[in-house]
Write a structure and sequence with these properties.
heterodimer; A: alpha/beta; 15 helices; 11 strands; B: Histone, subunit A; 3 helices
């Protein structure tokens, strides 16, 4: 199921000409959501509230007082809080949890008059690369429904890919925005760590997590980032770095831009068709005047190991809060406190969540902390240094987004290590805390989308947005 | 340094999770596979490397220590599986012998 996608710009023109209203646009998206129900992209749909919001925005537009995102309809991953709505995180343990406040990213979107249309399905607590780990069933890839949409932000990605919203918020801890964007043929941006406030985001791994947009075009992703970026006093890790004008970067002029190609990037494990698409992309960029330079990221082979040690350690600590005491499901018939903790967690968490909690608890446990956790923190610095060194020579780095196109349901579900290895090209940006964007760059012989990523310097989203946007029109 | 069923049981008790025998066996195998894979980071010499715990330059972040509104007690108890008027309600903490 691939429906025609609408850009914010198209909607704006239709609104200006009087051809439609925000209410009309919102109803259109609601109808597409209904028609595409089997894709299972949404966990909540705000049928009535979205229409009410849309009418408000129409009134504001008529009065000439509308915000920057008036006319835009956005879906939100169900790990990001919206006051008065359920936030399940794709988990049974939070089946009935209702958020008490808005996440800053959501509040900022609404303050600029975006309409939030619903909350999207995801791998439980954002742990997964296929959205097969949701307690509410898998999400189908609209390009080929026998295949996964990628993960963990599969629902947000599909909501955009299948024309159910202009854009969506996802979260990217190790590739959870970029990899699904690549599998479904859309744009996905992971901003610099600290660029977007994490207030109101249920934490997976706090030193990696970042909220970012999915959209059909780079311009729409930039429009969303413009609004959600910037310091927030409710998140002390959000950076006090000025937010530039992202749209101004979309000049399509990349002549003389230096793009680094890591010599490790096109190695073993990369699908030949993906490699070919990446090579063709490099040719197109050269044709537009960019300078492609070979660089090296010598610690590339250690990224998956470093990531899965640190991420599981942080996740096991963050998920300790789900104990059946203050919120979330409590197992029935428990006799004492210890039993309440154990039974509630055992019944409430799915298999992958438990596996990662176990791994994380193990690497943090007495006797193993130095060998695994501390060691991985050191290797993380080496990996970040690789990027910093490369960026003294080049403006951005090109990498495949995923070693393969979308795989079939069940293909990797029984082999956690194989699933983890599919994140090989995405985790490095999270380890280094740098921004990265995935954009479509072709299709394979089966018609499945292939994505390529541009990785930038910290807080230099303008450069990667510029090159990603330029590539779209080459 | 392979993980045994006993190790799985120990870590599970730390994590407040419980598993049946089949799950324990499967977890031991999976954790061993993953740990065997990640082992290669130990081949790197990191004796001169400082651990990286935060990816952007940040030192202590301070704010004024002033009063500001917060959620009410009533709201804070809304999502509780069990609560009295003012408190979260949990099963008995200390058992009599």
């Amino acid at each position: 199921m691939v429906t025609k996608r609408t850009t914010l710009d198209e909607t704006r023109r239709a609104l200006e000409s009087g051809a439609t209203t925000v209410e009309g646009v919102t109803s259109g998206f609601l109808e597409t959501i209904e028609k595409g129900k089997r894709l299972n992209a949404f966990l909540s749909v705000f049928q009535r509230k979205a229409i009410e919001r849309a009418r408000d925005v129409d009134r504001k537009l008529a009065a000439g007082k509308a915000g920057r995102l008036a006319g835009m309809v956005i879906a939100v991953k169900d790990v990001i809080c919206m006051k008065g709505e359920r936030t399940t995180c794709g988990s049974k343990i939070l089946e009935n949890f209702v958020s008490l406040y808005d996440a800053t990213a959501v509040a900022r979107l609404q303050a600029e008059d975006a309409v939030i249309i619903g909350k999207t399905n995801m791998d439980e607590f954002a742990m997964g690369s296929s959205t097969e780990n949701s307690a509410y069933g898998p999400v189908l890839n609209p390009v080929d429904e026998s295949r996964v949409p990628g993960g963990s932000s599969g629902g947000s990605c599909v909501s955009v890919a299948a024309g159910m919203a202009h854009a969506a918020l996802g979260t990217d801890t190790g590739g959870s925005i970029r990899q699904p964007a690549s599998f479904c043929g859309i744009v996905g941006l992971k901003p610099t760590y600290g660029r977007v406030s994490r207030y109101g985001l249920v934490a997976l791994a706090s030193s990696f997590d970042q909220i970012g947009p999915f959209a059909g075009t780079v311009a729409d992703a930039a429009a969303v980032l413009q609004v959600i970026a910037g310091h927030d006093e409710l998140d002390s890790t959000s950076a006090r770095v000025p937010v530039p004008d992202y749209n101004a970067a979309l000049t399509k002029e990349i002549r003389g831009m230096h793009i680094g190609l890591p010599q490790e990037a096109l190695g073993t494990g990369l699908d030949p068709e993906v490699r070919q698409a990446v090579e063709q992309t490099l040719d197109r960029l050269r044709g537009a005047g960019a300078v492609v330079e070979e660089i090296t990221l010598p610690h590339s082979e250690y990224t998956i190991s470093t990531y899965y040690i640190l991420m599981t350690a942080e996740a096991s600590s963050n998920l300790a809060r789900f104990d059946g005491a203050r919120y979330g499901e409590r197992a029935p018939g428990v006799r004492d406190l210890a039993e309440m903790y154990t039974n509630s967690r055992t019944a409430g968490f799915g298999a992958e969540t438990k596996r990662r909690i176990m791994l994380g608890t193990y690497v943090l446990s007495a006797g193993y902390y130095d060998a695994y956790y501390r060691k991985a923190q050191k290797v993380r610095r080496l990996i970040q240094d690789d990027f910093f060194r490369a960026f003294t020579k080049v403006d951005c780095i090109l990498l495949p987004t995923s070693p393969t196109t979308a795989f079939r349901f069940g293909e990797k579900a029984d082999d956690p290590l194989q699933m983890y290895l599919s994140d090989v090209y995405t985790v490095s940006a999270n380890l280094a805390g740098v921004p990265a964007i995935s954009v479509p760059c072709g299709v394979d012989g089966k018609g499945l989308p292939i994505g390529v990523q541009f990785v930038g310097k910290q807080f230099d989203e303008p450069t990667i947005l510029k090159v990603a946007d330029a590539l779209g029109s080459l | 340094m392979a993980i045994t069923i006993k190790d799985v049981e120990h870590v599970a008790s730390l994590a407040r999770l419980s598993f049946n025998d089949g799950e324990k066996k499967k977890l031991a195998t999976e954790l061993n596979d993953i740990l065997k894979y990640v082992e290669h980071i130990n081949s790197l010499d990191t004796s001169a490397v400082e651990p990286l715990s935060h990816v952007i330059e940040l030192s202590n972040v301070f704010r004024a220590d002033g009063l500001r509104p917060s959620i009410s007690r009533e709201e804070a108890l809304k999502n509780a599986p069990a609560a009295t008027e003012k408190f979260f309600k949990v099963p008995k903490v200390i058992n009599e012998r």
